[in-house]
Amino acid sequence: MWSVDPRTGNQRERVAAEATAGDVDGAVRAAHAVRGALADREVRIALLRAAADELTADGARIIATADAETALGEARLTGELGRTTGQLRAFAAEIEDGGYLDVIIDRADDSLTPPRPDLRRYKIPVGVVAVYAASNFPLAFSVPGGDTASALAAGSPVVVKAHPDHPATSELTGAALRRAAAKVGLPEDVVTVLHGFEAGVELIKHPLVAAAGFTGSVRGGRALFDAAAARPQPIPFHGELGSLNPVVVTEAAAGEKAAEIGAGLAGSMTQGVGQFCTKPGLVLVPAGEAGEQLVATLAKRLADVAPGVLLDGRMRDAFLAGVDARTRLDGVAAPVAAGEGEGRTVAAGFLTVDGERLLTGGEHDLLLEECFGPITVVVRYADTAQLTALLARFPGNLTATLHLGAAEAEDPNGRGAALLAELTPLAGRVLVGGWPTGVAVTPAQHHGGPYPASTSHSTSVGATAIERWLRPVSYQNAPEALLPPELRDDNPLGVPRRVNGTRQV
Amino acid sequence: MWSVDPRTGNQRERVAAEATAGDVDGAVRAAHAVRGALADREVRIALLRAAADELTADGARIIATADAETALGEARLTGELGRTTGQLRAFAAEIEDGGYLDVIIDRADDSLTPPRPDLRRYKIPVGVVAVYAASNFPLAFSVPGGDTASALAAGSPVVVKAHPDHPATSELTGAALRRAAAKVGLPEDVVTVLHGFEAGVELIKHPLVAAAGFTGSVRGGRALFDAAAARPQPIPFHGELGSLNPVVVTEAAAGEKAAEIGAGLAGSMTQGVGQFCTKPGLVLVPAGEAGEQLVATLAKRLADVAPGVLLDGRMRDAFLAGVDARTRLDGVAAPVAAGEGEGRTVAAGFLTVDGERLLTGGEHDLLLEECFGPITVVVRYADTAQLTALLARFPGNLTATLHLGAAEAEDPNGRGAALLAELTPLAGRVLVGGWPTGVAVTPAQHHGGPYPASTSHSTSVGATAIERWLRPVSYQNAPEALLPPELRDDNPLGVPRRVNGTRQV
């Protein structure tokens, strides 16, 4: 695999080779063979913390390499490394907490009809997890990212298919994870990094792969989802694919803070050169003066945004083609034209269109598809009824955002509440105010949403991401001596449990 | 649809018609239109309890009809009705408990880097649920069964595809559910019953169907799973398909209680004429004297079991063909031959085979597939190593059962613990002693298992069955006035929550 500098298009260095089918088989078998080593919770806690330490220790080199491969910049990548190590430590804390095991104990009761046996349920790791790394977060959603961290936390070994946009970063971070494993006495094969498109295809078909996580495009994710479902033994495929991340600005919000919203939008949609999966890609603004003020602020702010370099040349081509196709649609204007910048850069811009164009299907439905890069679509809606009709046509999303006027935010029976209810079916995270870029790593986070945002109901960020790599099992009348500690009467690990209907925290 | 008496093969009465594509579309649209009516938790609690009451009130007629259509007998069906109403009431209690909402609240924290917004997560209903009813439990896994009860509890309306073996029972129980809806002020369309094979195919493809539950054969379930995955917007398909339910008897257990185990096996494998999805279909017994004593007891007890009537003629044909194909395999003996009984009955029996026949694949792998009806396969294993090698070849199961000697059950580092660890990857419920038939309806139950036992990691029995019909959503910085009560600071409904990392029960 060649590491390429997207700022120049030049090959930087050759790192690793594309994995053969034999390499994939070897990696999965090795991971499967060592899965038992992850059974001990203390060693998993130590592994995750050691991984954070190793990444931090090699941080300068990792950040420099990632910047050279992705052009995301040192500041952003420094933040992303902190997010990544924080994520690893957060999952260590979740293991300590133990709530993720979802322990339920119902003791035997002969007085019931029929008599109830002793049943004790918790969750066990699924087995080898395949992780498909993302392009746009070379750390936090790649080799050492949330999928890997949550799978290891669950006790499942990981085989990562690296993203071709940052093979050198993938090798460095993979080595850090394997060093961490060795330091805590685990076999290094609890994590393996593989490269190459064909390796990814082989991986999802391997009989010993028990589940998969993916972050990327609708096209790639759907192909792998289909392959996972078509296996002789289908496996769960937790894919995060595309998202439009609609934003609704009410008449009142536009009236009260058009300039603030316009400026915020310009910042959010150009963050990371518009390459966030939570980029606000479509903004519903009321037709009329207040809405136009918002649009004017957006235009002014975007004019000040310097062109940026996308992750790779293929994405640049797709962005330019996507912008072009959308701009050509009837009734679409480009107050600030996105497009080619100097050298290999692209300039940010936005489009406008009247809501009625999006009500009837046809070619304008292209505007309801994600366009990866620094572009957004401002849709002017005529009235409340049209807004509702527009929302009903939207696909599933990671996020939906609602900007309300001050009074709307205070009235439980008003327009704000009604709009929140209309947005909730559209997304996994619904924001009131603010912008969807920036995904807090915290237990209450949900980073997922109705298809095509996700291929499952799971999240890839936050504590509950661990649920993807576990399956429940219930023991019936197992003697105390044979039970795992989490299910024993004396609860030696102090995990939260529901016993005979009563929660014990 | 004709209601047929399996005892005679005669058509009893004509009930309802096969649903057309238009009927399916109408039912799903009607269900979707009324989904909001299920948002109120008090009305859902009332609905489930009223449904239990309605079923009880019409119990005599329902039981008589079900018996006439299934030949399962009044005693069994009386118990099943109690299980069904108990299940409905248990889900009402789960709504009251509120723990299923999995509420997590992380309050804003500006002291963090980056600052954390206010995030509040809970679970919302997925939308219209398609339920595919089972043949073998005309009540508990059919129209008013666990899938329907858990979906309604979650707040999702239901369209049931009735099983053709009991259309009259399906109509009666569906009417009871719709009466219950009307009594508590809900639209009747929160539950609709449809009949016909084509209706089932149309149903899984309907764009407004958001998830499906299924109990039935591997063939039928896999076809529907594939259709669910192939949709433009794939949906979760929670299928319970086939299970062998292996039983392991150790040398010590056989030595201590061969007769007791043999007798228990005869009872379990013939319960419901061998038509339980948890029927022990393969029993690993040590070669040698103690094992032969177990086999002798089994033979003696089975000779006393009266022939029984299977659910329909097609199943009888499949059973006879399945027994025949297995009996013809090299090295397979039939100490008690299962097969045709008088009239339309079948006689129970069992097969024996040496473990080495099952180690190498080939035609003997037929013995690793479920054969629905009163037959089991006793596999004589030569030694511990062969037992381990055999277990490694087994498919996924709903249950796995381990019979241990007294000392083995007491030793956390002995043979019993090792075998429990070998059985755990094979099943969703692992029993020590006893028999897998009989699935307690209780929060700690897990009725599901690795494929082909299930097409997902979910359970179809017990409190956590509700998780199948929910998806998480997180609200970011939503003002208190707009939040649902479950997420408000004052927690007016008193649901269990995890707030800033601390559990509040």
From TrEMBL, chains A, B:
This is Aldehyde dehydrogenase (NADP(+)). The keyword Protein biosynthesis does not apply. Keywords: Oxidoreductase. Signal peptide: none annotated. GO terms for molecular function: oxidoreductase activity, acting on the aldehyde or oxo group of donors, NAD or NADP as acceptor. Gene3D superfamilies: Aldehyde Dehydrogenase, Chain A, domain 1 (3.40.605.10), Aldehyde Dehydrogenase, Chain A, domain 2 (3.40.309.10). Residues 481-505 are annotated as: Disordered. It comes from the Bacteria. Residues 4-390 form the Aldehyde dehydrogenase domain. InterPro entries: Ald_DH/histidinol_DH, Ald_DH_C, Ald_DH_N, Aldehyde_DH_dom, Aldehyde_DH_Superfamily, ALDH_KGSADH.
